[in-house]
């Protein structure tokens, strides 16, 4: 999956979670974003 597609997918999930999500879902999406940032950093080197 392309990085842009992953970002779009997470953004959509984030909007949904912020509308009706639980604390666990918000923590989960934060972890996914952290992993994506690491991946982005590694690909940009």
TrEMBL record:
<dbReference type="InterPro" id="IPR036638">
    <property type="entry name" value="HLH_DNA-bd_sf"/>
</dbReference>
<dbReference type="InterPro" id="IPR018540">
    <property type="entry name" value="Spo0E-like"/>
</dbReference>
<dbReference type="GO" id="GO:0046983">
    <property type="term" value="F:protein dimerization activity"/>
</dbReference>
<dbReference type="Pfam" id="PF09388">
    <property type="entry name" value="SpoOE-like"/>
</dbReference>
<dbReference type="GO" id="GO:0043937">
    <property type="term" value="P:regulation of sporulation"/>
</dbReference>
<dbReference type="InterPro" id="IPR037208">
    <property type="entry name" value="Spo0E-like_sf"/>
</dbReference>
<protein>
    <recommendedName>
        <fullName>Sporulation protein Spo0E</fullName>
    </recommendedName>
</protein>
């Amino acid at each position: 999956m392309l990085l842009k597609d992953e970002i779009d997918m997470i953004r959509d999930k984030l909007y949904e979670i912020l509308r009706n999500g639980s604390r666990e879902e918000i923590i989960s999406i934060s972890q996914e974003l952290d992993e994506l940032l690491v991946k982005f950093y590694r690909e940009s080197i």
